[in-house]
Design brief:
Helix content is 22%, strand content 27%. The protein contains two helices and five strands.
Length: 73
């Protein structure tokens, strides 16, 4: 089981799911109409390390953070 957290303005509570790769997570999240518009513009961190390979293998207990783009000033 992995935990997915959605940061910033996405405004969705964390969820848990069974997944063996980031591709599994991506496919499940794309099916959610609330999230699909965010996913193409967000960065992804796995256990606080930025990742971009959907083939990344996940382990039980991993934490995936979906990070939307932000502006600062």
């Amino acid at each position: 089981m992995v935990k997915i957290e959605f940061l910033g303005p996405i405004g969705k509570a964390p969820i848990e799911m069974e997944a063996s790769t980031l591709a599994d997570v991506s496919n499940r999240l794309k099916a959610d109409s609330e999230l699909s518009s965010w996913l193409d513009k967000c960065a992804v961190a796995l256990n606080d390390t930025m990742v971009n390979d959907l083939g990344t293998v996940l382990k039980d207990g991993d934490r995936i953070s979906i990070l939307p783009p932000v502006c600062g000033g």
